[in-house]
Every structure is written in C-alpha cells, then in structure tokens.
C-alpha cells in the first residue's frame, strides 16, 4: 500500500488560534454524520461496512474547477459513473497521502473482484496557491495514474465544498513560509447521475471501501 509520496513532506506545525476551528469542523462532521442514517440504496437493502448512504440523493448543482490539464471540470463531469471525491492538498503530511493510498489499494481490490467499471477518483486541492496543474498531477500519479486532480479559487471551491459538507481552513505561514490547511477527511460518493449519495468516513480501510463499493455496484445492477 502506498502511503507517502517519495519526497520530503513538511510536518504540520502546532495549531493555536485554529484550535477552535478544528473543534468546529469536528462538530459539523458529527452533525452531518448524524444525518446520514440510512443503510440502503434505492429499493435494495445493502449491508455496508463503512459507507453511510443518504436517505435521499442530492443533485450536485453547477460549479466549475480546473483540472491538472488546464481543462474545466464541472458538475457535468461527475455524470456517467460512480465518482469518489476527496479534498486535500499536496503538502499534506498525513491524511491526504494515507487516504489516497487507501483509495489506490481499494481500486486494486475492485479489479481483483472483477468489477467491470471502477469508480473515478477525483482529488480536489483546497490549496490552489501551491498546487498548480503539474504539481497536482504528479502527486496523484504516484498513487494511481487514473486519479484526477482539480482545484480552483476559493469562490469556485466553495461552490462544491458547500454542497457536500466539506470544509477547509488555511493557517498563517510559519517562519519558513509553510502553512497548514485543515480540511475534511471524508470521501464523498457521487452516483452516475451526478448526485451525492453518501460518503466514507475518514480512516476507512481499503478492505471496507472495496467491499462497500462492490456491494453497491451489485445492488445497482
């Protein structure tokens, strides 16, 4: 399992003023988690190990970000297949490389399960100042060249984070110029009609993600 890029990643400095924001993020995550109580998909009852499914799918409204290739990425690009969204940044010291490594392993497991069409994994950087196109693509390529990487300015990012319940907070730079970004760690599931149907909580295992995606793919036919 790949967990860290082959490069030096600065460690996150201790947070002070941001502590209250982190607590607020945790409270919001708990509130959102309480809302996701259904364990079925459409008419089919599916036993899941980690994923939480919304009682009703939520259509993703228009937004426009930009891909690592410089091309626009909009809500229309979320249609046609199951998509997994993960928010982070390439200088992330822990959550991002760990989660992307788990997602890469999950895709390998789905391939071994002979799933005909694996989900598309999209990494959304919430740090556009440091994450230019080539930087993002090199980062996700380390985990899986099939992964996509997109970003945008704060207004564009807000258009999608607000819809899926994701949050991010940038902190002031330290003496070296490095700054940390606190962000949501869940993985958002978008169905082939561009609707948010649920999420995986932070620190979900590759085994659980693969098992749940396999179960959902069978339930959907």
Account of the 3D structure:
This protein is α+β, with helices and mostly antiparallel strands. It has a single domain (about 20-220), classed as 3-Layer(aba) Sandwich (Glutaredoxin). Helices cover about 30% and strands about 25% of the residues. The chain is built from 5 helices and 12 strands. The chain has helices at about 20-35, 95-110, 135-145, 155-165, 205-220, and strands spanning about 40, 45, 50-60, 65, 70-75, 85-90, 120-125, 150, 170, 180-185, 185-190, 195-200. The strands form 3 sheets. An 8-stranded mixed β-sheet has the order 3-12-11-6-7-8-4-5. A two-stranded antiparallel ribbon has the order 1-2. Strand 1 and strand 2 (about 45) form a beta hairpin. Helix 2 packs across helix 5 (about 205-220). The longest helix has 18 residues, at about 95-110.
Structure characteristics:
Glutaredoxin; disordered N terminus; two-stranded antiparallel ribbon; single chain; 32% helix
Helix and strand arrangement:
Blueprint: H1 19-35, E1 40-41, E2 44-45, E3 52-59, E4 64-67, E5 72-74, E6 83-88, H2 95-112, E7 120-125, H3 133-143, E8 148-151, H4 154-164, E9 168-170, E10 181-183, E11 187-190, E12 195-200, H5 206-219
Parallel strand pairs: 6-7, 7-8
Antiparallel strand pairs: 1-2, 3-12, 4-5, 4-8, 6-11, 9-10, 11-12
Helix pairs in contact: 2-5
């Amino acid at each position: 399992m790949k967990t860290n890029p082959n490069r030096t990643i600065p460690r996150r400095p201790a947070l002070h003023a941001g502590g209250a924001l982190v607590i607020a993020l945790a409270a919001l995550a708990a509130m959102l988690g309480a809302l996701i109580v259904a364990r079925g998909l459409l008419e089919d009852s599916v036993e899941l190990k980690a994923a939480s499914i919304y009682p009703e799918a939520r259509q993703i409204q228009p937004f426009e970000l930009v891909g690592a290739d410089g091309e626009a990425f909009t809500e229309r690009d979320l249609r046609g297949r199951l998509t997994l969204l993960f928010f982070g940044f390439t200088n992330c010291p822990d959550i991002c490389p760990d989660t992307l490594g788990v997602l890469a392993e999950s895709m390998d497991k789905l391939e071994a399960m002979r799933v005909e069409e694996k989900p598309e994994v999209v990494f959304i950087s919430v740090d556009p100042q440091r994450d230019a196109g080539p930087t993002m693509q090199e980062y996700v390529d380390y985990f899986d060249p099939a992964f996509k990487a997109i970003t945008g300015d704060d207004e564009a990012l807000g258009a999608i984070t607000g819809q899926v319940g994701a949050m991010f907070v940038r902190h002031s730079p330290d003496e070296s110029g490095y700054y940390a970004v606190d962000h949501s760690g869940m993985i958002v599931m978008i169905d082939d009609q561009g609707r948010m149907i649920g999420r995986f909580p932070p620190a979900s295992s590759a085994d659980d993600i693969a098992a749940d995606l396999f179960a959902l793919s069978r339930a959907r036919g």
